[in-house]
């Protein structure tokens, strides 16, 4: 959000900015979903709904989880929120006491540690580097668990790295978790439909169903259906946890928009061709941006297995000087140089717990990808 605000400010000043900070699909919500939302408004669905979500949407979510993930939930075990972030925040609010620990592998979505800290918990950041594909290993997990550990947060496909955990990798992590029954699992699967090449999305509960009584599955319609502004996310988990989350919602936001929930029913239950088309488009863009970025001297990039971000290393640029004589000491310096010199907006890896990298979104047009990478190459060539 801060990066977007900076881009908007520069554009207001008349600067032409290629924006690679975007964390949402660049195409419109599919027409059949919009039509469902409009019909709901015209039909009078403008009042409060149940705090946990409408029965129709919770049934649609339960059917989706069964159909696509082979996970079985009663609708009482499902809570709808104002985006997936809303459910994550309330889960931490409902479960964390002062000093409770939450294991968060790097690179992480920027909100996880802050939401833990706001609710009195202690983020335990576990570094995962390129050698592991930016994925948590069983050994690293085992080493990080203490008697105060309350949660492990897993995000697959991952924002910002695009890493996708295989069934085997998840099985190894689950074997560790089975030895530590006090540790709960929060699995953020919001990018599940965007996987590329031979990668396949797998939920931890698909490989270890015995963890169901201490696992919270997080998902939503924002990414797959280009519905970020509709603000609908959901969680599925053990009934006592879901009741606690619902109680917090009743005393804070009350409920999600009724019309948005109606649109989400159509998204989950209606034609799914739009999801496949979006995934195919992102696959093409991802392949192109990886090739362009890897052709730039001093930058290297792993091809993402999922999501719509690349996470290139810019460590090869550190120590070089800009045309103005400033030395690039870290990834934040590189980010600012590309913004000011090239008019290309990216996000520093430090914000994701992984210094020396940049997050670049390819949720934008091929034209913008080509133009932005050409600008980056020109700016890098100007370094001394």
From TrEMBL:
UniProt GO MF annotations: transaminase activity
Origin: domain of life: Bacteria
Documented EC number(s): 2.6.1.-
Pfam families: Aminotran_1_2 (PF00155)
Domain Aminotransferase class I/classII large: from-to ranges: 16-376
Top enzyme category: transferase
Cross-referenced Gene3D superfamilies: Aspartate Aminotransferase, domain 1, Type I PLP-dependent aspartate aminotransferase-like (Major domain)
InterPro entries referenced in this protein's UniProt entry, alphabetically: Aminotransferase_I/II_large, AspAT/PAT-like, NHTrfase_class1_PyrdxlP-BS, PyrdxlP-dep_Trfase, PyrdxlP-dep_Trfase_major, PyrdxlP-dep_Trfase_small
Keyword tags: Aminotransferase, Pyridoxal phosphate, Transferase
Keyword flag Transferase: yes
Cofactor: pyridoxal 5'-phosphate
Family: Belongs to the class-I pyridoxal-phosphate-dependent aminotransferase family.
Record protein name field: Aminotransferase
Taxonomic source organism: Herbaspirillum robiniae
């Amino acid at each position: 959000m801060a990066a977007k605000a900076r881009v908007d400010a520069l554009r207001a000043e008349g600067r032409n900015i290629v924006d690679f900070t975007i964390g949402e699909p660049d195409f419109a919500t599919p027409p059949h979903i919009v039509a469902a939302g409009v019909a709901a408004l015209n039909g009078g669905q403008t009042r409060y709904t149940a705090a946990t979500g409408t029965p129709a949407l919770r049934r649609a979510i339960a059917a989706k989880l069964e159909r696509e993930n082979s996970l079985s939930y009663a609708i009482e075990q499902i809570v709808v929120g104002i985006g997936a972030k809303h459910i994550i925040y309330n889960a931490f609010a409902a479960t964390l006491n002062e000093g409770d620990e939450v294991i968060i592998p790097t690179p992480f979505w920027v909100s996880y540690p802050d939401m833990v800290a706001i609710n009195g918990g202690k983020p335990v950041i576990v570094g995962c580097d390129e050698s592991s594909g930016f994925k948590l290993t069983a050994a690293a997990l085992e080493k990080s668990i203490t008697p105060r550990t309350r949660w492990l947060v897993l995000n697959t496909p991952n924002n910002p790295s695009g890493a996708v955990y295989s069934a085997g990798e998840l099985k190894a992590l689950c074997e560790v978790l089975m030895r530590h029954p006090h540790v709960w699992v929060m699995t953020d699967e919001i990018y599940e439909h965007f996987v590329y090449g031979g990668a396949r999305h797998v939920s931890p509960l698909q490989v270890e169903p015995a963890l169901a009584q201490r696992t919270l599955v997080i998902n939503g319609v924002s990414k797959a259906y280009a519905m970020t502004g509709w603000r609908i996310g959901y969680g599925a988990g053990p009934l006592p946890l879901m009741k606690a989350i619902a109680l917090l919602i009743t005393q804070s936001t009350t409920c999600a928009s009724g019309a948005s929930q109606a649109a989400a029913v159509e998204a989950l239950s209606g034609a799914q061709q739009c999801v496949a088309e979006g995934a195919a488009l992102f696959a093409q863009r991802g392949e192109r941006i990886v090739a362009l970025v890897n052709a730039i001297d001093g930058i290297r990039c792993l091809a993402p297995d999922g999501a719509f971000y690349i996470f290139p290393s810019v460590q090869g640029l550190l120590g070089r000087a800009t045309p103005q004589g400033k030395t690039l000491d870290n990834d934040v310096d590189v980010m600012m140089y590309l913004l000011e010199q090239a008019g290309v907006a990216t996000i520093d890896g430090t914000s994701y717990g992984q210094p020396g990298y940049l997050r670049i979104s390819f949720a934008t047009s091929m034209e913008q990808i080509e133009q932005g990478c050409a600008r980056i190459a020109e700016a890098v060539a100007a370094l001394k």
